Amino acid sequence: MEYIRETSDYQRIWESLNFPKEYLFERKISYNPMIFFVVSGEVRLKLNDMETYLVSSHEMFMAQSDISYKVTMSEQTHLIICHVPLEVWYAEQKWISDCKEKDVSEEFFKLSAKKIIIRFFSLLDNYLKEGVNDARFFELKRHEFIFLLFFYYQKNELLQFSQCMLSKDIQFKKIIVDSYLNAKNVQELAKLVNYSTSGFIKKFKKCFDDSPYKWMQKQKAKQILIDISRGTKSLQEIANEYKFSSYQHFSVFCKAQLGAPPTAILEKKTLNYR
After folding, report:
1. Which of 35, 37, 91, 165 has the largest count of CB atoms under 10 Å?
2. Which domains does the chain have, with CATH numbers?
3. Exposure string (b/e) for 254-274, b if CB count within 10 Å is 16 or more?
4. What is the distance between the alpha carbons of residues 154 and 161, in angstroms, rounded to a whole number?
5. Model's pTM, two decimal places?
């Protein structure tokens, strides 16, 4: 079995997996949806130990939250999985908001890949296999993939395909993502979005499946990783910009959130580009 991941484990975007015939794995989707694309082979899906569905080569489906998936390979199979948290769909927010009022079937739905999607995944798989290792690049590829879906497929197909997103409070998530950089702490963020602190924490956990504090720390770490990777600012400048009390505090934060001190992250990025 082969896993291909990004540099940062906390923000996985793409996985490329190869399985032998009759291999079985199980996944419980806790919150953020995932799109499964069958590059080659065929899988049998059993949902919540009840219905079974077949997904063949060049077909894809979106895994819904709170559903247990048992995936068995009918033959040797190559899968690519895209992790698609709700915030990456903001360009399509108006469409999603409008669709919330529509009656959407909860039946399992798979989408046949058009030629442009097949070519997209073929090129993406080459990037993964050749060791391209840049979180920002793969995030942009995810946005490209979503654009292709909305450009090349009919609305009724997308409505069925993306049904698991339509019951989520995407507007609340958009407000959070737009506002959190202006807040120093959870209390300030709650105030910015017009919630009491207790009500905000409850709503946030429901929508993000995480505490506001932990989520804000992860977003901060994500931005710091991008700044370090760009190499346009010194590490001390980055520490000052994010208002760390000292460089040592900044280093401890990076080690806790990103798995390495900032000097090691910068050195690794420098080596990757040589």
Report:
1. 37
2. 9-165 (2.60.120.810), 170-272 (1.10.10.60)
3. beebbeebbeebbeebeeeee
4. 11
5. 0.62
φ, ψ dihedrals at 117, nearest 5°: -70, -40
Tell me if residue 2 falls in helix, strand or coil. Answer: coil
Work out whether the CA dihedral 15, 16, 18, 22 comes out positive or negative.
positive
